[in-house]
Amino acid sequence: xxxxxxNMYKADLPVDESAQRVVxxxxxxxxxxxxxxxxxxxxxxxxxxxxxxxQREEKQELLEMEKQRDMAHDLLRLSLDEMVMQQNKEExxxxxxxxxxxxRYRAIYQRAEDSRDADINSNRQVAPDASISVSDSxxxxxxxxxxxxxxxxxxxxxxxxxxMNERNLRAQKEERxxxxxxxxxxxxxxxxxxxxxxxxxxxxxxxxxxxxxAAHIALSHYNRAQAEERMEREQQExxxxxxxxxxxxxxxxxxxxxxxxxxxxKRKNESSAEGPRVLTDRWKGMTPPQISEIHRKREEQxxxxxxxREMERQRDVAWDYHLTEQARQQERDDNxxxxxxxxxxxQLDKYNQQLAREQQAHQHYLDKQLYTxxxxxxxxxxxxxxxx
Length: 388
Hints:
This protein is mainly alpha-helical and 388 residues long. It is built from 8 helices and 2 strands. The protein has helices at residues 2-12, 18-38, 49-109, 118-121, 154-254, 256-259, 288-370, 377-381, and strands spanning 266-267, 277-278. The protein has a two-stranded antiparallel sheet with strand order 1-2.
């Protein structure tokens, strides 16, 4: 009974859907937030903003360049269209002028009444002969062939028309002959002008050739004069150089350098206390006493150098002994330091072994006694499931 009453009460109460809508809206917002945060395409972490801005600027520059190119093409297209329209307009005007000239020419020189078959194409028909073989009494009113006034002065009219045609033909012939004569005169004048131009060109070519020939002759004379002048200068220079060389040879032959006089190398200097000086440019060698003195000095220098070499050798021996003693002392000190280091390393190894045993014991305590509850896969999957 209680359950039935509760069900009855629940069925009677209105369902509050606002809370459910709020929950659904929050769930949808949470799902959208998750998609936005965990989506690799919508995240901005790790994106090169500088490169993106640069790409956007390059794209804008490219669009601007395309826009300017399109504007330039439009302006060029408009200018070409205007040129084509202007050309079409000029062609149309020229075509109209040619048509008007053709109509004017036909109206003046190709009239229909001036043609040979003008009488055939004319609306007027030649009146029939007035003399007929049938009598008037045998003909009725509808058989009338000759009327009053028809055929009067027909022969005079034909003769006048023929004379007018002859005059027109004669005038056209004279006009054509006149045009031909004018054309021949123009051709003669043109030919004469061309001949005069050719003669003038031939004269100018002859004058130009003469000028070139005169310039070539003058240049040849000038070059010949320059060559003769240069040859004269070279001969003078060669004679001067030969004279100087001969004078130098003569001086060298007669000078003290080749005669080898010892006295020429000595010069007294009264103002100096050193006595006579030797002229290096005339000195020919030393005397025997001078050579013996040099040998003696050289022997003394050799003995002095040998003594110094012996002293240097004794000093090197003493220094080597000192260095050997220092090396032995250094070796003893190094051995003592190595022994101390070996003992110190042994003590350090023992201490490290003790620390390792203590760490292993502590780790064993942590693994076997303290941390016995290992995390499962469900523990790690609970992370990164919400955006909060």
